[in-house]
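Let us work through a complete example step by step.
Step 1: write down the sequence.
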Amino acid sequence: MPDLGGLPKRLFTSWRGDVLVAGLLAAWAVGYLGLAAARGNGQWTALLFALPFAATVAVRRRWPVAATGVACAVLLGAQPLGVTAILNGALGTPLLSVLFLLSYTLGTETGAAAGLAGTALLAVCAQIAGGGFSPVAEMITFGPWLAGRVVLSRRRLAEQLRARNDELRAEQEAFAEESVRYERARIARDLHDVVAHCLSVMVVQASAGQRMTDSGEVAEVLESVVATAAQAQTEIGRLVELLADGPTAGASPGLAMVGELVHRASGTGLIVNCRFLGDCDRLDAAASQTAYRVVQEALTNAFKHAPGAPVDITIHGEDSGVTVDIVNAAPRESPAALARSGGGYGLAGMLERVHACGGSLTSGPTATGGWQVSSALPAHLSREPGEPVAHDRG
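Step 2: predict the structure and record it as tokens.
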């Protein structure tokens, strides 16, 4: 519903309001002279004064100096037209608003010198048209001009404040960006100091355990721990550089690393079958890394929530992109305490990664009691991904 409360303000602060005022003044002049003619004392010559004088109001905002010049010329022609007497009566009273509006416009729309000269000329011409000195002419010309100068100064001050606010807003945004960069660098330092240190200790201790044990099975498990910790160290390094806005060291893990990921998962006792179909090299680096993370998180979830259940991984390359399907069977053993670890953000993180690559991801239980994760990644990066639905297990 339109705002009717602000309609009068918008009307009388625009050229439409000026045209309306000019029309009302012209209608008043025609109506007044028509009534006077009906009484037998009409003087239609006054329209040669009233109509152009009222018309100056309609153009005062766009051409204030020209409108003032026309008004002065019309005032000076009042005596030659012989309408001075009738203008000093009821006909001329509403027309005094023209002097008011023109003087105010000279104060708000022109320079100080030009506006003051035009206002003084209007006052003199009004005195001549009135046939004698009257303080009313000075009051309705110089008073509005001064008011217009005050409004103009306030308007310029408001523009300066608006420009300063824009500068402050830009400075705040720059400060916020700098704060984000600083916080990212701080998180990167903390991440490196805490997590990378712990992983280094794991690698050292697992390596020492390999040298101390005589059991081949235990040595194989410790070797798997060393390899996993070393891979985690490498990925932590990449994450630290990403947070610190630094260059990425080495190639990011992608589909080429899925085989190694499956090998490590099999070393933990998980039964994993992986198949590559079609051309799976159609993804860019970001989408390829996302596919790797999808497989990694799905295997982690299967290890936590479905111990002993086989996992089937199918990576299918097509013209439009690559689809990744990970399906695990129903759990064969009761989930251990590891199933309660984590913050429940696994699939949510996957979903964000797939979103960023313009793909789609769905997940949910299968008819046989297992779990399925399916992701479709386009060959080219899209900035407006759809809104897939996922159910997170953790």
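Step 3: interpret the result. The first strand starts at residue 272 and ends at 278.
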